[in-house]
Q: What sequence folds into this?
């Protein structure tokens, strides 16, 4: 037998599989494309979620800061008001000590 004939007779297992069932390779390629599309979609979803988390963190920091400012403002208003001074624990202690 000549050398080219020997090479022709020696087929890879992939070539044999393709000859026996050509749909297997097409099915594998289709599955690969489907998986790639799914991975890309999941990457996009992850990017969207990461952006959303960043925006929620920023909003949370803003709200915490606003909450602190409002809390301080309310404390200042309460300290300036005679109605709340009589209810404050310091005022009660002072009046209790005066009664003794």
A:
């Amino acid at each position: 037998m000549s050398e080219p004939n020997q090479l022709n007779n020696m087929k890879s297992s992939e070539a044999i599989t393709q000859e026996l069932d050509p749909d297997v390779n097409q099915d594998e390629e289709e599955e690969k494309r489907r998986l790639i599309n799914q991975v890309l979609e999941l990457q996009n979803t992850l990017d969207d979620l990461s952006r959303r988390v960043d925006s929620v963190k920023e909003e949370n920091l803003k709200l915490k800061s606003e909450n602190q400012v409002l809390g301080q403002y309310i404390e200042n208003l309460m300290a300036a008001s005679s109605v709340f001074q009589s209810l404050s624990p310091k005022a009660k202690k002072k009046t209790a000590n005066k009664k003794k």
